Amino acid sequence: QVQLQESGPGLVKPSQTLSLTCTVSGGSITTTDTWSWIRQPPGKGLEWMGLIFYSGNTAYSPSLKSRTSISRDTSKNQFSLQLSSVTPEDTAVYYCNVPGTEYWGQGTQVTVSS
Predict the structure, then answer these.
(1) Are 9 and 16 in contact (CB under 8 A)?
(2) Is-contact 42 29, C-beta < 8 A?
(3) How far apart are CA 6 and CA 37, in angstroms?
(4) pLDDT tens digits, 21-78
(5) How many angstroms separate the CA atoms of 104 and 38, rounded?
(6) Burial of 67 by CB count in 10 Å (0-12 exposed, 13-18 middle, 19+ buried)?
(7) Cβ contact 17:84 at 8 Å
(8) Neighbours of 98 (CB within 10 A)
């Protein structure tokens, strides 16, 4: 069974870059189709941010594309999210998941505040 675990700082200052890592167990990021990042701001719905394919190619939400980068470390079976120039509006619970499956991380709260 695939398990995902997000990790990273819980507090980021405005204008800085948010960096999160998703560690995968029970599956390989180089053989399963896609791996994605999703967030949920307080009081709002889920927002898809982007994904990385097993090949290493990426796709991003048009609204976040200019600030988002997803990469991977195949030696550690991890994939990562970087969101630049953050503002308080980027405060959210951030999740990694396998699209179309029940495989989700538990989520990690990130607050953008000075």
Answers:
(1) no
(2) no
(3) 10
(4) 999 999 899 986 799 999 999 999 999 999 999 999 999 999 999 999 999 999 999 9
(5) 10
(6) middle
(7) yes
(8) 19
pLDDT (tens digit, 9 = 90+) per residue, 63-74? Answer: 999 999 999 999
Q: At 97, which helix (H) or strand (E)?
A: strand 92-97
Name the residue among 100, 94, 91 with its Cα closest to residue 80.
Answer: 94
Tell me the two tokens of residue 113.
């505040």
Q: Cα separation of 79 and 73, whole Å?
A: 6
Other residues' Cβ atoms within 10 Å of the Cβ of residue 52: 21
49 to each of 26, 35, 66, 95, how far by Cα in Å? 24, 11, 11, 10
Pairing relation of β-strands 68-73 and 58-60?
unpaired
